[in-house]
Specification:
Structural class of chain A: alpha+beta
Mean pLDDT of chain A: 95
Oligomer: homotetramer
Radius of gyration of chain A: 21 Å
Shape of chain A: globular
Distance between the termini of chain A: 32 Å
Number of helices of chain A: 8
Largest sheet of chain A: 5 strands, antiparallel
Strand order of the largest sheet of chain A: 1-2-3-7-4
């Protein structure tokens, strides 16, 4: 089940960048949830290519067609099938990579693993897959409406939004094209990405995500810890190289006397270096984590590489690519968060029922 | 299946710190593997409490009893049950936490989630659970003997082993009690942990792990990417706050032109910022990753906290605790790595067979 | 994952009888398999409504559109998405059951479980779902070509094909519309179904399936026994009330001295009451099993029933229904068999590889 | 996960007949359930060898030791590990089968699949494994106390208890050693088994199970239908050859007008040929099903067979075996039923919670 995420609320996906369509099956969604289709489209638009000058200029309508599981506007509890047709395929842009392995792309590993692959646009390795996740995440969000999920761009290259998340106004995140809730830093980030783009290069960055009003008790002990599930989900996103929650890698430099979160009488804590999770289980405080994205591998510069015969060749990036994936990754991080939380809630609720 | 890791090669575990025993069931182990029991005990000894002055002074024999699945010294392909009896329980050390929630421990979340818990020694939340993982990992290592798995302590607090792993001699890792392959840094790390311990405090750190000779093609696309599986496994270890592989969080600061790994004619790459994985699938280069551990929450200092009635109380750490978990985490990181790799190999091998 | 079958080779499905489409995601299919699309359509035609006078007269083209996972005619090893558009929906045929629970249908249980359902044509409870299984089964068959899978109608009502399967010529199965390989009995069966149909009634029956050339060693001990997996798959088909393999319920009347299969020197057995499986694992002999189908619940006679308000009402079957599902169930039984066998092979092959 | 049953409430087992112990891990049991250990032992006693003259005369204490997950007499919500030590191993009884494949046993298939096996007492293929299931089932029963689970012997050879279950007094089941609630038939069954035993032979039989007070709505559509889950569980029991529920194979002979269950105004039905399940989901009526057991393969008569070299040899059954498994299978059928029902309840409850 390499194309499935979740245990009870699950998403199983398919689709290649230049095939007829992407899509998936959402299973385990509770019945009777009213679906706001406009809201789903809004989420898709946040991920959509061509939305601004600092993302890929491909044009894809990214319209989802639901095929089952929703009747008269409400979920029925049965599986929800959906597809998103690919519209703007310029497959000839990819003829040059038919037999050439792009550096730091998955062309080589897919070819070696499977022996036969759809090379066009990266095929199954394309981040176009994440359109499916945004659909499922948008539905999950509508089930767990009381939880606030806010992701944002927290760094681009070496330019960091240093403010703690508590000092940010998340209502500002969508007010700029880089999705950084601090307008001043956002301007710098946009300039940086734009400069990199003009140079035919790309740049990495990080996304931070904050989950508020998560009920106490989500996550399971040992191997299904809430942060392990979140981590696995985030590490599934194309280009992700790292995940940390709460104090993260900084916490590894600290002493226990500095790191411990002292309780208030109501069970909340004075600090929250734990990141809202103790022993793998949500403690009612904000959950926050950070995801590292490497720079996009396709650059508009000549690079040396090899072809499938093992010959050294020169290649030049073609097509329309993101100079920085981070702005479009923000809704993806949110979508996966929503799916993980809902899945954990379904399991937790089941065990809490009286028998 | 919150207590299970893996899909084909699986480990399902049980056990509390102060219960009669820990143990587990290893399922999906191939048949006919000769088991070196001494080697398993050696791995257990690497994780064992009381092995040096910089770890907890608890004494546990940590002897594993195998109950099934191994016959005449070889695996039979059926499930391998095992137990490790708890020997050195000083449960009265924990009476003081029966109704008190220790700061940054899971006492509070378990109590809220389950309403009833074994508080002694942290019960199921204790890192004593990882003894089970070392057993299963030791068996997995014996199945995939051709793969080299080397973890080591790469930082303690703000003291970092800066050398790249390529410059290290992993045969030195076990030559010092902190498990850092650089003797000079190891001495400093030991001194740092010792100082922290004497102060009744604790300190965090990181473990780096390097996997050599991993066959090309392990890992699955989309949601079962090899690094996502490794990440989830590592995030399951007590006290872990972050995971990064290859260039990790540093990669998020870089440009594509700096980050891309240029191929050699044989399919290897000149650099390896990718960390041996492309598109979730091993590319034959070394896999390496880094795991961040927070400082142990139990400190020998008075802290304010609350009890189960929501009253503010003072508490003082008791019992025998690690001032730094990192030295004992090294074999745990290796064990989980071995389990993940074997699981991926079984799935990959199945699909590669001819039909 | 209520809509998923399999562990490595998996099918996850969606779709309602009168929704826009049915479809699914096939995951874990090995790469490099050449797909014969005509063969898939032939299998779909065997299941198709309207194919003869003894099945439902609905007209559905049942054309599958593959959306991913197949490139240049060969599988790529990635997930295969597909849809089958619903064409011949006469939803108004079902207005009369919007608030009425048809006897021995799932209207009542779905309404009570979910509170909101697509009642048209039975929605998700419709056997139209099995069109998805035939697609996935047709692909599985193309992977395991060396295995012969032959199902056939073995009884209709109290009319039984008494001959043992060894005396049948499976090449005759498709030569009559009831799919019974004995022409004489087939004629009687057809007459029986036709009479029942004219009377506005329906009738049950059984399908027998024979699997030849199954490799030794498929199936797993304890909970994934090969026959348990086959049984679960068959019990998933709409209207199935029973499953038996080998000697089945007759075996329960026998003595050990009668029932034991004595070995030949080559490991084959003189008799095969075991049905090709010992201890849950295939032994190389023919596997055979029998599946019982109840009569279709929708009859063209007035019945008393209740509506959603708990009022007693009269209702009369409408629409176009099968007088007997068995002829159309034959390809469905084969499809599920192929999926189960391939899934077991992938797991078995993985463990048999050398390490 | 060949040794695991269940999705949320799971049991993962290990153990060979003549190894040191059997045991397992129960995961997903809700917290706070008071455990009646005497009741567990009573269930084990019902399955125990040596309990009467018509079962195997092996003596096993069959005492379970719980190792985790239960604290101060109540479940904690964490995994419950347990072991049952093997006490009465007469391994030398099995030297004669070290290289000989017993007819209609799994010796041959295990040897071919795995190449290395514990032959003593059948090793992992022994029905001794079911002791684990009785432990887990006994715990599941204590969680779902409001459901009545009653299995009984419904046939031995060609001797059938013809009365419908509605006419039986289940309180009589344990009053005779064959576990048939009709005293007169029980006497005949006992005589039949005794006669077969004296002849060195064995005999098959069936177990019927009735589940009363099952809440409406358990089971999932499509591939996790309640009866499919029950069927798979029952087909996992050693020697089972068939499963039917409700009208079963008889239903396949009937017409729709005879078979349909007409509703009462309250949603109950006048008849219950459906067997309490519609569309895979419980409808609140009694669930009942029947399980067919073949005769035990080990007989005390000389049989021809082969050894691992493919030579024809004569062999004679040795050791202490059941002449008929059915009396001891009754508690096993109940145990699996309880596990399946609880697992379905946990999933159903999770989705029914408000969000």
């Amino acid at each position: 089940m390499a194309n499935t995420i979740g245990k009870i609320f699950t998403l199983t996906t398919f689709g290649e960048s230049h095939g007829p369509a992407l899509g998936g099956v959402i299973d385990g969604c509770p019945a009777g949830i009213e679906i706001d289709f406009d809201q789903i489209q809004l989420e898709l638009n946040r991920r959509k290519p061509g939305q601004s000058k600092i993302v890929t200029q491909r044009k894809e309508p990214d319209e989802v067609e639901f095929l089952s599981g929703i009747f008269e506007g409400k979920t029925t509890g049965t599986s929800i099938g959906f597809i998103i047709r690919n519209a703007n395929q310029k497959s000839k842009d990819y003829n040059h990579i038919k037999d050439v392995y792009r550096p730091s792309h998955a062309d080589f590993t897919y070819d070696k693993k499977y022996g036969h692959r759809d090379y066009r646009g990266g095929g199954r390795t394309s981040a176009r897959e994440t359109v499916n996740w945004v659909v499922a995440g948008a539905i999950a969000k509508q089930v767990i409406k009381s939880i606030d999920i806010n992701a944002y761009t927290s760094s681009v290259g070496d330019l960091f939004l240093e403010k703690p998340y508590q000092d940010l106004d998340f209502s500002q995140t969508e007010n700029n094209i880089v999705r950084c809730p601090d307008a001043a830093i956002a301007t710098q980030m946009i300039a940086k990405i734009d400069a990199v783009r003009k140079d035919g290069d790309t740049i990495g960055g990080t996304v931070t995500c904050v989950l508020k009003n998560v009920p106490l008790g989500l996550g399971e002990p040992v191997f299904d810890k809430l942060h392990a599930q979140l981590g696995k989900a985030m590490l599934s996103i194309n280009a992700v190289k790292g995940f940390e929650y709460g104090s993260g890698f900084c916490g590894a430099k600290m002493k226990g006397s500095e790191h411990n979160d002292i309780f208030n009488a109501d069970g909340s804590t004075q600090t929250n270096l734990s990141g809202g999770i103790q022993g793998g289980i949500s403690n009612g405080m904000d959950i926050y984590f950070r995801v590292a994205f490497k720079p996009v591998a396709t650059i508009m510069k000549e690079q040396e590489t090899i072809n499938s015969k093992g010959e050294l060749v020169k290649m030049m990036g073609k097509g329309r690519h993101d100079p920085c994936v981070v702005p479009r990754a923000v809704p993806i991080v949110e979508a996966l968060s929503a799916m993980v939380l809902l899945d954990c809630m379904l399991i937790h609720n089941g065990a809490k029922a009286s028998f």
